[in-house]
Amino acid sequence: METSPSEIGSSKIYGGYNKRYKHFSPTLGCSMTFYIYFPPSLSPSHKFPVLYWLSGLTCTDENFIVKSGAQRAASTQGIALIAPDTSPRGLNVEGEADSWDFGIGAGFYLNAKEEKWKNWRMYDYVVKELPELITKNFPELDASRASISGHSMGGHGALTIYLKNLDKYKSVSAFAPIANPINCPWGQKAFTNYLGSNKVDWEEYDATCLVLKFHDVSATILIDQGDNDKFLHDQLLPNKFEEACRSANVPLLLRLQPGYDHSYFFIASFIDDHISHHAQALAL
């Protein structure tokens, strides 16, 4: 199996290039696609810092690249964007496509413990395999200077991955993250199926629990949340995360944005702020 990435698409935008790649992932046991946005090159020897973007339920690696408009600010700030897919695909596990909030397109950025879902190891894919692949294959990128962001399920992924790997990422931000999944229907469904019934295992992938455990956070966590988001009060629970950050004395900027919903229109409206937030941290 070919594990090194092959380019399958390229489009110029804001002086740089969106490039899509395909490779076989030993971690997930299937072929995966991901996007990189390369800003305009400054010099042959220049290395760009990277911002990983984790997308939400039902998304692929394409949604953010096509809909967010993030390339404009990334081009100006000189940051490469890396957008992986949201789950393994093509494994034909029974039940993997039965519901939109579990299985395909719903990897939840964890390492599954249940045997049936053993290939669902998006945590290891994002934290270990992808950075190694970037370092090995893209000399113009500096994977040692990395930040992480995401939306909804991907916001959950960004927060949990950051908190458990404070040495690997300079900063984190999120749009409408699933901030306390052990207490919401999406999280309870996913965690029961992927991780089993032991609630202690669930807490390892809940940002509200983790911030009390890994609270040596220096960079301010940025979260934007629309107050017209239909998932705000039953699924996302940013207030629970805010309370935990306050208890742990972790710097958090939680902005409730009036009138905005859960869509990419919301993300596109504030993505420049998030790119600037990460640019500041990556420049240090």
UniProtKB/TrEMBL annotation:
EC number in record: 3.1.2.12
Cell compartment(s), UniProt: Cytoplasm
GO terms of molecular function: carboxylic ester hydrolase activity; S-formylglutathione hydrolase activity
Main location: cytoplasm
Cellular component per GO, a single term: cytosol
UniProt enzyme class: hydrolase
Keyword line: Cytoplasm, Hydrolase, Serine esterase
Catalytic residues as annotated in Swiss-Prot or TrEMBL: S152, D229, H262
Any GO BP: formaldehyde catabolic process
Reaction catalysis annotation: S-formylglutathione + H2O = formate + glutathione + H(+)
Pfam families hit by this protein: Esterase
InterPro entries assigned to the protein according to its UniProt record, in alphabetical order: AB_hydrolase_fold, Esterase-like, S-formylglutathione_hydrol
Biological function: Serine hydrolase involved in the detoxification of formaldehyde.
NCBIfam families: fghA_ester_D
Membership in a protein family: Belongs to the esterase D family.
Protein name (database record): S-formylglutathione hydrolase
